[in-house]
Amino acid sequence: MIPSCIMIWKLTYSNKIVSRSMNENASKKQFLYKYDKIIM
């Protein structure tokens, strides 16, 4: 049986990775959107 603290740590760690990648994607989209505006 895995201790609950390790389970919680794994959950929070994976959530942090997911949220970080989502933030990076959002910033990339924003950058591309601004770049498109400049080109147009």
Structure described in brief:
This protein is an all-alpha fold and 40 residues long. It contains 1 helix and no strands.
Q: What summary fits the major beta sheet? A: none
Write down how many β-strands occur, each being a DSSP E stretch of 2 or more residues.
Answer: 0
Low-confidence stretches: none
**What series of H and E elements makes up the topology?**
H
User: What Rg do the Cα atoms give?
Assistant: 17 Å
| Alpha plus pi helix count | 1
Q: Helical content, roughly?
A: over 70%
> Overall mean pLDDT score?
78
Percent range for β-strand residues = under 5%
Measured between the Cα atoms of the first and last residue, the distance is 59 Å
Global structural class: mainly alpha
Shape label = rod-shaped
Can you give keywords for this protein?
40 residues, mainly alpha, 1 helix, 90% helix, 0% strand
Explain how this protein is built:
The structure is a single chain. The N and C termini lie far apart (59 Å). The radius of gyration is 17 Å and the shape is rod-shaped. It has one helix at 4-39. The longest helix has 36 residues, at 4-39. It has 1 helix and no strands. The model has no long low-confidence stretch (mean pLDDT 78). The protein is mainly α and 40 residues long.
What is this structure's SSE topology?
Blueprint: H1 4-39
